[in-house]
Specification:
By secondary structure, this protein is α+β, with helices and mostly antiparallel strands. Helix content is about 55%, strand content about 15%. Strands 1, 2, 3, 4, 5, 6, 7, 8, 9 and 10 form a 10-stranded mixed beta sheet that branches. It has a 6-stranded mixed beta barrel with strand order 12-13-17-14-16-15. The longest helix is centred in the middle third of the chain and has 41 residues. The chain is elongated. The two termini are about 35 Å apart.
């Protein structure tokens, strides 16, 4: 037989059909375009979000590295790391001393650090926003930050200027004039002066004792087994610390979490397209059955349906991808520019995988969405097509009348009638709500306000900087009762906890002190060790109030008896790097006397605390009851203040406190740790991550709502005859609207049940896998409530608006009589 070339006929019939029903096929085109647009945008912005997350980690760490080897290294260890197949680069940092004072300030916190070229040019570069001048080459040159200059009282200097400072290294104390060779601005390690290799060689320090390595791995995701093998290959000593960044350590879980989010994103796009195409093509089954009655074969019907979908789907993918590219590469960079993100640090680049995944997912969805209805359209007989009602009637079974009102029973029965369609709606809304919940939880919980809390979660900690000087005789009591009274008068301050102190002398023969000195000196090197020339050792005895004791007591493995502590029988010891066992502490006592007096006091050691807040002058740090200390000693001084605000992160209160400090005659001797400043620092490090993540969450929530809009509106259109029949039998329009609202609320309630069960479990797993900061798991109730209200409104309003449109467009008789 001769082949029958029917391609032209089918093509002509397909084009005529699309021209005759522009509205329906316009919906096809819009569906493919919207799905392609949303998927392309979500994937592109999602990759941007991951890159911003990486940039945030780099900025918080101060450099782009994954592992640190601390407390010295050998040349062999460095070579092993450089030759390892998993390692990309190895940078060196080395301690070179510290600044003692300048002619402008004698309470300086600035250290001297040497970095090699690999660290400074490769690993540090992404944490540097601006750099002027050059890295030091000569021994008297410094690379500085504005913060370090201000700490030294030289904030007005610039590149090329010089100043005299007194610094200490392993050879002793020196006074020398230094030239500022460069100034950098950015993140991490701001209160340091970077010195040259020539300076470091003259400092007397060795790489095996006071240095470390920054290791950058090649892959972004690495298993814990690989990290363990890398640590084992280094062969570290007991003194060395092999520290892995939390992001790197949890990277395998983060990969699983990212893959899970990607799967849900693709699933949401699939549901959107499948929903529209399946319902729309299924609605034309009657039309395709009539074509068969006119002589069209089953194969021709399938080709006709698939050809139309391919043609319109290809056009939709093209339009949606172009629109997504325009938004991703046009709008997002503009928003990033408004957020102040440096283009060199964060830049959206075209990734072929995004285009490939978008086309593949949408294309596969088009095929899957049309395959089943095309097969149904080709297999149905003309007689069956004439009787087609949009669903296959289920086998009638006798069943008892359910409980509840007739409207509730009819709404529940409608959801059970087409279980596949109901499942699609539930899955679509639940998937979108779950992803929205997951992203808002990750974004909100790991935001700036959950990072870097101060001691006792104080809003600002005000310290007397002279209490931290190595020379205890240089202490000046700058925080007095007058200052505290003025601070209490500031509106917005709710509570102030005072840390008092007494300079005491502890006899060298005291068992606790002798063991502490022996173990402390074993950890130090060179002039960092504490000499034993004096008979008594000077140390600060710190006094805390009852509320602060309760706070500390909760953190102890073995709580201390409160009465013993308040009465002075027991004390706590600050952990300054020296370890004691609980058994050792329980057997030790501390003897001390107030400086200038003859009478010794004695107290037992009850436990050890790890809060750096109590570390002064590198000593052992004895913590006692402030009330007891005031009664037992002639005079106590205020060392620090913990200030709480009525309103967290209150900018006005913060400004008033800063004004009080800056106008004080001893302003240069105050040192402040502000939660508000920490929040601003973290916000700058986040570089718009919150905004980009919120865009992704909103887009995904929009996908779910669009799925529901299409499913419900198409379902009501397909039910227009059954609804019209019920109206003709006496059901009022008000009752029809009530029925549709009940159905919508069942959809909303069902999707929320899935979200709060399976969705919550998935959210918790993804959160923990990407929780590199160790933030607590908290549900953002405000954002979740807003999403739930939006979903409920959509589930109520969309059926009502669709019914109103249908009722106004067609009369009751036309709806009963109408068919495709």
């Amino acid at each position: 037989m001769l082949a029958n070339n029917d391609q032209k006929v089918i093509r002509r019939l397909s084009l005529r059909s699309m021209r005759a029903d522009r509205k329906r096929y316009g919906t096809f085109l819009a569906a493919a375009a919207i799905a392609s647009f949303l998927l392309f945008c979500v994937l592109t912005i999602g990759l941007t979000y991951l890159e911003l997350l990486k940039l945030q980690t780099i900025r918080i760490n101060g450099a782009d590295y994954d592992i640190q080897l601390i407390n010295g290294f050998t040349r062999e260890q460095k070579e092993k790391l450089m030759k390892d197949e998993h390692v990309s680069s190895v940078g060196v940092f080395a301690y070179a001393g510290y600044v003692e004072k300048t002619d402008a300030d004698d309470t300086v916190h600035t250290g001297l650090i040497y970095y090699d070229d690999v660290f400074w040019k490769e690993q540090k570069s992404r944490a540097v926003d601006k750099e002027s001048g050059h890295y030091p080459q000569k021994s008297n040159e410094l690379m500085v930050t504005r913060e370090a200059l201000a700490d030294c009282g030289k904030g007005e200097l610039d590149v090329g200027d010089s100043f005299v400072m007194t610094y200490s290294d392993r050879r002793g104390s020196h006074e020398e004039e230094f030239v500022i060779s460069g100034i950098w601005e950015g993140f991490g390690g701001k209160e340091v002066f970077c010195v040259s290799e020539a300076f470091y060689r003259e400092s007397g320090y060795e790489l095996s004792g006071n240095a470390g390595l920054f290791v950058k791995l090649k892959g972004r995701f690495v298993t814990k087994r690989t990290l363990a093998m890398l640590e084992e290959s280094v062969g570290k000593t007991d003194r060395q610390i092999f520290y892995v960044n939390s992001d790197t350590e949890n990277s395998a879980y983060a990969l699983a979490g990212t893959a899970g989010l990607g799967f849900i994103i693709c699933l949401s796009a699939y549901l959107l397209i499948y929903n529209i195409f399946y319902l729309s093509v299924a609605g034309k089954v009657r039309y395709y059955g009539l074509l068969q009655a006119l002589g069209m074969t089953k194969r021709q019907v399938r080709r006709l349906v698939i050809g139309q979908v391919i043609l319109i789907g290809a056009a939709g993918i093209l339009f949606g991808t172009l629109a997504g590219a325009g938004v991703s590469f046009g709008l997002v960079p503009y928003v990033m520019k408004l957020l102040g993100i440096k283009a060199g640090n964060m830049e959206i680049r075209f990734h072929p995988a995004v285009l490939f995944v978008s086309i593949l997912v949408v294309g596969c969805t088009l095929y899957l969405s049309v395959r089943k209805p095309a097969l149904a359209a080709s297999c149905i007989t003309p007689a069956e097509a004439l009787a087609y009602q949009g669903y296959v009637p289920a086998e009638r079974k006798r069943k008892k009348t359910g409980r509840g009102s007739w409207c509730q029973r009819m709404a529940a029965g409608q959801l059970r009638k087409d279980k596949k369609k109901t499942a699609v709606v539930f899955l679509s809304l639940a998937a979108s709500l779950s992803v929205y919940l997951c992203l808002t939880t990750i974004i909100g919980t790991q935001g700036a306000r959950t990072v870097y809390p101060n001691h006792m979660d104080a809003d600002i900690v005000i310290r007397n900087d002279t209490a931290g000087l190595e020379d205890t005789e240089a202490f000046r009591p700058i925080i007095g009762d007058t200052f505290v009274e003025e601070l209490c008068q500031i509106e917005g301050i709710s509570k102030i906890h005072i840390l008092s102190g007494v300079q005491a002398e502890i006899p060298r023969e005291n068992e606790f002190l002798s063991v502490w000195l022996e173990r402390y000196n074993a950890l130090q090197s060179g002039n960092s060790a504490i000499e034993s020339s004096r008979q008594d050792y000077r140390a600060w005895i710190c006094g805390i109030d009852e509320a602060e004791f309760d706070y500390l007591n909760q953190s102890l493995d073995e709580p201390v008896d409160k009465e013993d502590f308040l009465s002075g029988k027991k004390c706590l010891v600050y952990h300054s790097g020296v370890e004691f066992s609980e058994e050792e502490l329980g057997q030790m006592t501390v003897r001390f006397r107030e400086e200038g007096t003859e009478k010794y006091q004695e107290t037992g050691v009850a436990g050890m605390v790890y809060e750096g807040y109590y570390g002064f002058s590198g000593g052992p740090g004895i913590i006692m009851s402030g009330e007891y200390l005031a009664s037992a000693c002639e005079e106590t001084d205020i060392l620090s203040l913990n200030v709480m605000y009525d309103k967290e992160y209150d900018e006005e209160t913060e400004r008033a406190v800063r004004t009080l400090i800056n106008t004080d005659e001893h302003a240069s001797d105050f040192y402040c740790e502000s939660k508000y400043d920490n929040m601003q620092e973290i916000r700058a490090a986040q570089s718009g991550r919150m905004e980009v993540g919120s865009c992704i969450a909103i887009l995904l929530l929009l996908v779910g709502i669009l799925n529901y809009i299409n499913t419900v509106s198409a379902g009501i259109q397909n039910r227009r005859r059954s609804l019209a029949v019920m109206e003709s039998l006496g059901m009022s329009r008000r009752q029809v609207r009530e029925l549709l609202v009940r159905e919508g609320m069942l959809y909303a309630g069902g999707s929320m049940v899935v979200t709060f069960t399976a969705g919550m479990l998935v959210t918790y797993f993804l959160f923990q896998s990407m929780n590199s900061m160790g933030a607590p798991f908290r549900i953002p109730l405000a954002y979740l409530a807003a999403a739930m209200v939006l979903v409920c409104l959509a589930c109520i309003l969309i059926p009502l608006l669709t019914y109103r449109y249908m009722d106004q467009k067609e009369s009751l008789a036309e709806r009963i009589r109408g068919f495709e």
